């Protein structure tokens, strides 16, 4: 399974770009991009969007990867992870239904 960092690094390497060039094009510090690629830091949603556009990657896939890593990191040492995710999904559906009913 590829991490978000792996995906970003592969995209850069496939285009044969150096970090400095990417940093200049997307206006994100070179050291930050390096940390994203090494999974030492997580980009913001805005940075994800910029990187997706620059690399020509599907924005939705990067966002799904970003959220899933965020959730997995939060729950990795928790008991009943499956039950937590099931209840969370039910709550999301409830909230969406409430918003649609307004």
TrEMBL record:
<protein>
    <submittedName>
        <fullName>Helix-turn-helix transcriptional regulator</fullName>
    </submittedName>
</protein>
<dbReference type="GO" id="GO:0003677">
    <property type="term" value="F:DNA binding"/>
</dbReference>
<dbReference type="InterPro" id="IPR050807">
    <property type="entry name" value="TransReg_Diox_bact_type"/>
</dbReference>
<dbReference type="GO" id="GO:0003700">
    <property type="term" value="F:DNA-binding transcription factor activity"/>
</dbReference>
<dbReference type="GO" id="GO:0005829">
    <property type="term" value="C:cytosol"/>
</dbReference>
<dbReference type="Pfam" id="PF12844">
    <property type="entry name" value="HTH_19"/>
</dbReference>
<dbReference type="InterPro" id="IPR001387">
    <property type="entry name" value="Cro/C1-type_HTH"/>
</dbReference>
<feature type="domain" description="HTH cro/C1-type">
    <location>
        <begin position="8"/>
        <end position="62"/>
    </location>
</feature>
<keyword id="KW-0238">DNA-binding</keyword>
<dbReference type="InterPro" id="IPR010982">
    <property type="entry name" value="Lambda_DNA-bd_dom_sf"/>
</dbReference>
């Amino acid at each position: 399974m590829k991490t978000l960092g792996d995906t970003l690094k592969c995209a850069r390497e496939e285009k044969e770009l150096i970090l400095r060039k990417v940093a200049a094009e997307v206006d994100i510090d070179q050291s930050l991009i390096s940390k994203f690629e090494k999974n030492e830091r997580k980009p913001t949603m805005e940075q994800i969007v910029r990187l997706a556009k620059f690399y020509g990657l599907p924005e939705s896939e990067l966002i799904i990867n970003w959220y899933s890593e965020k959730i997995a990191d939060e729950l990795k040492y928790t008991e009943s992870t499956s039950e937590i995710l099931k209840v969370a999904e039910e709550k999301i559906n409830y909230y969406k239904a409430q918003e649609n009913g307004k």
